[in-house]
Write a structure and sequence with these properties.
heterodimer; A: alpha+beta; Glutaredoxin; eight-stranded mixed beta sheet; 20% strand; flat; B: alpha+beta; seven-stranded mixed beta sheet; four-stranded antiparallel beta sheet
Chain lengths: 572, 658
C-alpha cells in the first residue's frame, strides 16, 4: 500500500523515489492492471437498504432483487408506468449497461403522485417543498416531506413527479406546497392513489387520468459472447510509423504510401490457426480486393518466437493460395523491432495495455495515415466497408469511426502526435517518434508543441541545425510563441550564436516579461558577448523573481563581483 | 487444425523508461582574462495557467529545463516497471493474514453446507473442519436463537436480536458466552451449519466475507469480518448480514479458527419467488436501434473499439437523465454513452416501450457525455437540455452545452460554456429566486488527466488542488453568467467534485448547495439572501472521505432533510488504515481521516439547527462498497425513505480474476 504524499516534493524515505513518484507509480500500476483486463474493486453488488422505522436500516439487496454486479454508476428514479410507485433505471460500466427495474415492492400500499407546475416560480417547480398530511382512520400520521430536485445521486436526474408512498394512510388531509418563489399554498380534496397536477396559485389539484396497467414482460438481459477481437477505426488523421521488413528474398523493403491505394499490413505466424484462416480468406478475395484498391503485405512474425526462413514462409503462404504474383500483394518476415513498433502504435492509439495478439493488421491509406487497427480476424465485409470509407473526406472518415451514426458536437480532437511521441519515446523508438513529429509539423507548422519536441529530438540526434530550422519554421507561421523563442534562443546560445540568441530572448521576454528563466537566459547571452553592465541588473531581477532558477544566484554573485572588479580596475 | 483464439505473441515486456530529457550543458565562457562564467543554459519552465498533473514540480534543477523542450509525459516517471506493491514484500503481513482468514472462513461455510471442494473431494466434513480449526476451538451457535421480526410485511420479514448493540472494531470476542461450549471441530461444524438454516431445504447460499480488521498479538490473530449470505429458499429468498469477530492461530501457511462470534446479526426473508424489483429492460428498450450493439457491450469492450483520441475512457462515467421531452405526459430517458457511441434518447410510448429518437431530436452526440439535465430553462413549458460534453482525453476544454427544446422534442444548441476541463455532476435550482433555473457544474480534475485516467490529488485524503466548480446564473434569453465568485461559491472551491445537490436543508425558504468531493472534504454552502458560505465543518458534514454522490430525504420523518453521501468502502482500506505502521508520521487526525476514507457511505441526520448528526455506522448504511449513485427513495411505499446504492469500480473480463 502506497503512502500518499501531502505535497509534491515530500520525500518518503531516504530512497531515490519521492513520495509523489511512489504515489504516481501506484496509480499507474492500477491503471495498468485495469487496462490489462484485470479487476479492481470489481464484481461488487448493488445495495438496497430498507428503512425499518428505527435507527438501523436493513440490508435487503438480494431479496429485493437489486444486487446486480455491473459496476453500477448512476441511478435515475421515475414512476415509469405511472402506477404509483417508483421504478428504477440503473446505468452501468459493464454490460448490460442499462437496467430498468419495475417496482413490484409497493404491494398495494397507496401513494399520491404530484406534478408541480410553477407560474411565478420556475415552471418545473424545482426547489418546491411538499408536505403531505395524511391520516390512518382517525389517527394523523407524521407529515411526509418531499422536494422537487434537478440532479441527484451521481450523474443522474430523477423524474420530477413527486410520488409519496402513504403506507397505512386511509385518507389525505392536505398537501402544502412551499413554492421556490417563497409563496406557500395548500391543496386539499386530493384522493389517495390519485395523480394530480398542482399549478401554483390555482388552489386546487387537477386530477390526471389514470394510466392503464402496462404489460411489460420480465426477462433477464443476455450479454452476447465476448470476443477478444478488436477493431478500431482511426478517424483522426494519424500517421503510420515507418514500417519495414525483409521480403522473401531477404531484401529490406519499406512501405511507402501510394495515392489511391491502401495497404493492409498483416502480422501472422505459421503456427497460428486464426492467422491461417484470415490469410486464406484474403487470398481467395485477392482479385476483388485488388480492384477495390487494396494491397496486402503479409509478414510472418515466426522469427520472434523461434525462427522460420523466408523460403519456408513463402512456401507456407503459397500452399495457402497466397497470390505472390499479384501486384501489391507482398510477403516477408517481421522482426522483433517491427512487432514492437506495431504494438507500441496500438497502445498509443487504443486505450489498452494488453499484449499484441495475432493476427494483427494495420490498414494504411494512400496518404500515409493509419486508417484502422485490427486484432484478431476481420470479416471481409468489414474490411471492404473500411476500405470504401477511405474515399471520404476527413469529416466522413471521422463519422465512419463512430459505433453508429451520430453527430460530433465538440471541436475536432487534438492531434494524436503527442501520444504517439510519448509512447514511441518511452519504448525507445526514436525514429518512429521523429517520423510522427515530422508528419505533425508538416501538417501544422504552427503547432508549437510538436515543433518544440521535434527540435528536441533532432538535437538529441545531433542535428542542431535541423532543430533550429524547425523552430524557425514555427515562428514563421506564428511569431508570437514565447516558449519557442526561448527554446530557440537556448539552442543558439549553446552553439555560441549569442547575438541571434539575444534577439529571440528579447522576443520571448516581450510576452513573458516576468519570467525568471528567460531573463536569466538573456542575461547569460549578454554576459557572453561582453555586455556585463546590461547583464547585471537582469540577473538581479531573475534572482528576485525566482531565486530557485538554477545557477541564477551564483551567476548574479559572479557578475556582480566581476563588475566591481572592472570598476575597481578602471577606477584605479 | 482446430480453431484457436488469436494466439498471443511473446513480445519482450517493454520496461517503462524515464522520459527523455534534454540535458542542459554548462558552458564555461570567457569574459575577462581572469574570470569565467559557468552559466547553465536551459529553457523555460512551463508555467501553465492550469496546473498539469504529471510530471511533478521539479525535485532536481534539471527538470525545469527539460520541460521546455519536452512536453509533459503521459506515463509514469518511475524507471521501474509499474508493479502493484506486493503486500508481503512491502511489510504488510496483515494483508496476507486477511486473505488467509477469509480463506478459512469460506472453507468453514462451504464444508458446513456439504460443498467442501476446497478441502478435498470426498473428504469427510468432520475431517475437513478439523483441518480448519484449532483442537480446542470454541464457537457458539453463530445464528442467534433469539431473533425477533423488526419488519413484518406480507412479502418481507426482517429478523434481528432484541437488542442490537453497535460496536466499533477491532474488538475482542467475549469469552463468557463460550463457557458452556464443548471445544472441538464437531461443535464448530454445527455452529457454522446453523447459519444456513434458511436454506436447509434448497441449494446452499452464496457467502461472502469481508475482512475489515486484523491484529496480531503473540500467537493469536484477531480478525473482524463482515459476513453476508444470500440465495433462494423453498418459499422465496433470504439474506443474512452480520459482523464477526474471530481469533485464529497460525498453522503453517493457513490460519485455524479458535473462537468466533457474530454480532448485529440480521436475517431477511422474502415470501414468494418473484423479486420485489422486476427487470423489464428488454421489454422496454430491447427492440430499439443500438440496444444489442451498444447497451449489451460493456466499457471494457468499447475501449477496444474506439480510438483513444475520441475520448475512450476506462471508468465508465456516463449518466442517465429522465424528463418528458416530447410533452406527451410520459417520462422519457436520455442515456449518455461512451465516446464514439451516440447518446440515446428513448421516448416513452403509451404501452411503456420506447422509440429511439436521438437523431431526430438532434441529440445523438458522439462526444463523451458525462451528465445531463432535462429542465425548462426558458419557462415555456418544455424540457430543455444541459449536458457536459468532452471530445478527447487530453483536451483542456469540456463544454457545458445548452440546447432549447422546440416543444416537440427537437433540440437546437443555444450555448456552449467552457467552464472546466473535467466537468462532472450537474444540479439546477433557482438560487436567486428570480423565477428561472440556474446551473451548477462540478469539476473533478483541474487539468489534463494521465494516461491511466487518474489525477494526482494532493494530499490524497484531503486534496485542495482540484477543479473549480461553476455557478451559471440564468439571465434569460439563453444567456448565463458565471457568478461563482460573486456569490461566495469560490470558497473551498478547489476540491475534486463529483456530485452536487440543491436542497433547503435549514428550511428557511432558499436552496442551499451540497457538494460531494472525492479525496477529502465535502461542501455545504448555506444560502443567505443569494450569497453562500461553506458551513460543512460547522454543520459536521465535512466528511473527509471519497465522496461520489449526494442525496437528500427526510428519512426520519421529523420534517427536515437528511443527507446521504456515497463514499467508497474499502475493506482493504479499513484493515490498513487501522494498522499502527500506516502513515506512522501522521497525526491522529490524519489517520482518522484515512479510516474515515475507507468507512463507506455517510448518513447525516438533520438536527434542525443547521447541524447534523453522523449516524452512518449506527444506521447500518455504510457498507456500500465502491459506491457511486447512492440515493433515497421509498421503495415499498410505506412512507419511509429507503436507500439504493450502485457499486463497483472496475470488473475485468477475466472470470478467474478476483
Amino acid at each position: 500500500m502506497s503512502q500518499s504524499p501531502t505535497t509534491a516534493n515530500q520525500d518518503a524515505d531516504a530512497g531515490t523515489r519521492t513520495a509523489l513518484d511512489i504515489y504516481a507509480n501506484a496509480w499507474a500500476a492500477l491503471g495498468d492492471r485495469v487496462l490489462r483486463g484485470q479487476s479492481f474493486s470489481g464484481r461488487e453488488r448493488n445495495c438496497a437498504f430498507l428503512n425499518t422505522k428505527s435507527d438501523r436500516f436493513a440490508t435487503v439487496s438480494a431479496v429485493v432483487g437489486f444486487d446486480a454486479a455491473d459496476d453500477g454508476r448512476s441511478i435515475a428514479l421515475t414512476d415509469w408506468d405511472q402506477d404509483g410507485d417508483v421504478d428504477i433505471w440503473v446505468g452501468n460500466r459493464s454490460a448490460p449497461r442499462l437496467r430498468l427495474y419495475r417496482n413490484d415492492a409497493a404491494d398495494g400500499r397507496p401513494s399520491l403522485s404530484l406534478d408541480l407546475q410553477g407560474t411565478l416560480a420556475n415552471r418545473d417547480a424545482i426547489g418546491a417543498r411538499v408536505t403531505v398530511r395524511a391520516r390512518s382512520g382517525g389517527e394523523p400520521l407524521l407529515p411526509l416531506v418531499r422536494s422537487v430536485r434537478a440532479g441527484d445521486g451521481f450523474l443522474g436526474q430523477h423524474g420530477k413527479t413527486v410520488v409519496v408512498g402513504l403506507g397505512e394512510a386511509t385518507a389525505v388531509d392536505t398537501v402544502e406546497v412551499l413554492w421556490p418563489s417563497g409563496a406557500a399554498e395548500t391543496f386539499s380534496g386530493l384522493a389517495i392513489g390519485g395523480r394530480y397536477r398542482l399549478i401554483q396559485g390555482s388552489g386546487r389539484g387537477q386530477l390526471l387520468p389514470p394510466r392503464p396497467k402496462l404489460a411489460l414482460a420480465i426477462s433477464s438481459q443476455v450479454e452476447p459472447k465476448r470476443s477478444t477481437a478488436s477493431r478500431v477505426v482511426v478517424g483522426v488523421p494519424t500517421p503510420a510509423p515507418p514500417l519495414s521488413w525483409l521480403d522473401l528474398h531477404g531484401q529490406r523493403r519499406t512501405w511507402r504510401p501510394t495515392p489511391q491505394r491502401a495497404t493492409l499490413l498483416v502480422l501472422f505466424a505459421t503456427w497460428c490457426a486464426p492467422c491461417q484462416t484470415e490469410l486464406e480468406q484474403l487470398a481467395a478475395a485477392a482479385a476483388a480486393l485488388s480492384t477495390a484498391g487494396l494491397g496486402v503485405v503479409a509478414l510472418a512474425a515466426d522469427e520472434v518466437s523461434g525462427g522460420d526462413t523466408p523460403a519456408a514462409v513463402g512456401a507456407w503462404l503459397a500452399a495457402r493460395g497466397w497470390p505472390l504474383a499479384q501486384p501489391g500483394w507482398l510477403a516477408g518476415l517481421a522482426d522483433a523491432g517491427l512487432v514492437q513498433l506495431v504494438e507500441t502504435t496500438w497502445r498509443a492509439l487504443v486505450r489498452t495495455r494488453q499484449p499484441l495478439a495475432l493476427p494483427f493488421a494495420l490498414l494504411l491509406d494512400g496518404s500515409g495515415r493509419i486508417a484502422a487497427l485490427y486484432q484478431g480476424p476481420v470479416a471481409l465485409a468489414t474490411l471492404r466497408a473500411d476500405l470504401a470509407a477511405l474515399n471520404g473526406d476527413d469529416s466522413s472518415r471521422r463519422a465512419h469511426s463512430a459505433a453508429a451514426a451520430g453527430t460530433w458536437v465538440g471541436a475536432l480532437p487534438p492531434s494524436p502526435i503527442p501520444t504517439l511521441d510519448a509512447e514511441y519515446s518511452q519504448a525507445k523508438l526514436p525514429q518512429a517518434a521523429l517520423h510522427a513529429l515530422r508528419w505533425g509539423v508538416a501538417r501544422d507548422p504552427g503547432d508549437a508543441s510538436n515543433c518544440t519536441r521535434l527540435a528536441s529530438l533532432l538535437a538529441n540526434a545531433g542535428d542542431e541545425a535541423g532543430a533550429e530550422q524547425v523552430l524557425l519554421g514555427v515562428l514563421r507561421v506564428t511569431p508570437d510563441q514565447p516558449q519557442v523563442h526561448n527554446n530557440l534562443a537556448n539552442r543558439l546560445a549553446r552553439r555560441g550564436q549569442f547575438d541571434q540568441a539575444i534577439v529571440h530572448y528579447r522576443k520571448a521576454l516581450a510576452q513573458l516579461p516576468n519570467n525568471a528563466f528567460v531573463i536569466h537566459g538573456l542575461a547569460s547571452a549578454l554576459a557572453n558577448t561582453g555586455q556585463l553592465q546590461q547583464a547585471l541588473p537582469l540577473l538581479a531581477q531573475a534572482v528576485q523573481l525566482d531565486p530557485t532558477v538554477p545557477g541564477a544566484k551564483a551567476d548574479f554573485e559572479r557578475a556582480r563581483a566581476l563588475v566591481a572588479a572592472q570598476q575597481a580596475n578602471t577606477g584605479r | 487444425m482446430s480453431k484457436r483464439p488469436p494466439a498471443h505473441l511473446p513480445t519482450q515486456a517493454t520496461p517503462l523508461a524515464a522520459r527523455p530529457r534534454t540535458a542542459p550543458r554548462r558552458i564555461a565562457i570567457g569574459v575577462a582574462a581572469t574570470a569565467t562564467f559557468a552559466l547553465g543554459v536551459w529553457g523555460l519552465a512551463m508555467r501553465a495557467s492550469s496546473p498539469t498533473v504529471v510530471p511533478v514540480p521539479p525535485a532536481s534543477p534539471l527538470a525545469g529545463s527539460a520541460a521546455a523542450a519536452d512536453r509533459p509525459a503521459q506515463l509514469t516517471l518511475d524507471p521501474q516497471p509499474a508493479v502493484a506493491d506486493q503486500p508481503a514484500e512491502q511489510g504488510w503481513p496483515s494483508e496476507v493474514l486477511a486473505n488467509q482468514a477469509k480463506h478459512t472462513l469460506e472453507a468453514l461455510c462451504a464444508t458446513s453446507t456439504q460443498r467442501g471442494t476446497e478441502v478435498g473431494v470426498g473428504a469427510d466434513p468432520q475431517t475437513a473442519v478439523a483441518a480448519l480449526v484449532t483442537p480446542d476451538a470454541k464457537v457458539a451457535d453463530l445464528r442467534p436463537n433469539n431473533l425477533v421480526p423488526v419488519v413484518d410485511d406480507r412479502r418481507l420479514r426482517v429478523w434481528r436480536q432484541p437488542q442490537a448493540v453497535q460496536r466499533t472494531f477491532p474488538q475482542q470476542p467475549t469469552v463468557a458466552a463460550l463457557d458452556t461450549i464443548q471445544p472441538g471441530p464437531a461443535a464448530v461444524a454445527r455452529a457454522f451449519a446453523s447459519l444456513a438454516a434458511p436454506w436447509r431445504a434448497g441449494p446452499p447460499p452464496q457467502v461472502q466475507w469481508k475482512v475489515v480488521a486484523v491484529q496480531q498479538k503473540a500467537d493469536t490473530i484477531a480478525v473482524s469480518a463482515y459476513y453476508e449470505a444470500w440465495g433462494p429458499t423453498a418459499s422465496g429468498a433470504a439474506e443474512q448480514h452480520a459482523l464477526g469477530h474471530f481469533e485464529f492461530r497460525q498453522h503453517g501457511d493457513h490460519l485455524r479458527l479458535a473462537t468466533a462470534e457474530l454480532h448485529d446479526f440480521e436475517e431477511t426473508v422474502r415470501q414468494g419467488q418473484a423479486p420485489l424489483l422486476a427487470e423489464v429492460t428488454h421489454a422496454v428498450v430491447g427492440h430499439t436501434a443500438g440496444y444489442a450493439n451498444e447497451m449489451l457491450v460493456g466499457t471494457n469492450a468499447w475501449l477496444l473499439r474506439t480510438e483513444k483520441a475520441a475520448g475512450a475512457d476506462v471508468i465508465g462515467h456516463q449518466g442517465l437523465t429522465v424528463g418528458d421531452v416530447d410533452g406527451n405526459g410520459l417520462d422519457d430517458l436520455y442515456v449518455l454513452q461512451p465516446a464514439g457511441v451516440p447518446n440515446r434518447l428513448y421516448l416513452q410510448q403509451a404501452d411503456g416501450t420506447v422509440l429511439e429518437r436521438s437523431a431526430w431530436a438532434g441529440v445523438d452526440w458522439l462526444d463523451r457525455t458525462r451528465s445531463a439535465l432535462l429542465i425548462d430553462l426558458d419557462n415555456d413549458g418544455d424540457q430543455d437540455l444541459v449536458a457536459t460534453v468532452a471530445w478527447a482525453d487530453t483536451a483542456t476544454t469540456r463544454a457545458l452545452v445548452v440546447a432549447e427544446n422546440d416543444g416537440s422534442g427537437r433540440f437546437s444548441q443555444r450555448g456552449r460554456f467552457l467552464v472546466g476541463a473535467d466537468l462532472y455532476g450537474l444540479a439546477a435550482a433557482d438560487f436567486d429566486g428570480d423565477g428561472d433555473l440556474d446551473l451548477y457544474a462540478c469539476q473533478f480534475n483541474p487539468g489534463e488527466v494521465t494516461a491511466a485516467g487518474f489525477g494526482a490529488p494532493l494530499p490524497y485524503h484531503d486534496a485542495n488542488n482540484g477543479g473549480r466548480n461553476t455557478l451559471l446564473r440564468n439571465d434569460g434569453g439563453w444567456r448565463f453568467a458565471d457568478v461563482t465568485q460573486a456569490v461566495g461559491l469560490d470558497e473551498n472551491n478547489r476540491r475534486w467534485s463529483y456530485a452536487a445537490t440543491w436542497e433547503d436543508f435549514d428550511g428557511d425558504g432558499d436552496v442551499d448547495l451540497h457538494v460531494a468531493n472525492d479525496h477529502g472534504r465535502d461542501n455545504l454552502y448555506l444560502n443567505q439572501g443569494g450569497m453562500f458560505h461553506d458551513v460543512a465543518a460547522a454543520a459536521a458534514v465535512d466528511d473527509v472521505s471519497a465522496g461520489m454522490s449526494s442525496s437528500w430525504a427526510d428519512y426520519d420523518r421529523d420534517g427536515d432533510f437528511d443527507l446521504y453521501v456515497g463514499n467508497m468502502f474499502s475493506s482493504a482500506g479499513r484493515r490498513i488504515a487501522s494498522q499502527t505502521h500506516f502513515q506512522p508520521a501522521a497525526d491522529t487526525a490524519v489517520r482518522g481521516h484515512y479510516q474515515r476514507h475507507a468507512q463507506g457511505n455517510s448518513l447525516f441526520r438533520n438536527r434542525g439547527d443547521r447541524h447534523f448528526d453522523d449516524v452512518s455506522v449506527a444506521s447500518g448504511t455504510t457498507l456500500g462498497r465502491w459506491a457511486w449513485a447512492s440515493v433515497f427513495t421509498d421503495v415499498d411505499n410505506d412512507g419511509w425513505q429507503d436507500l439504493l446504492v450502485a457499486n463497483g469500480m472496475f470488473t475485468g473480463d477475466d472470470p478467474t480474476d478476483l
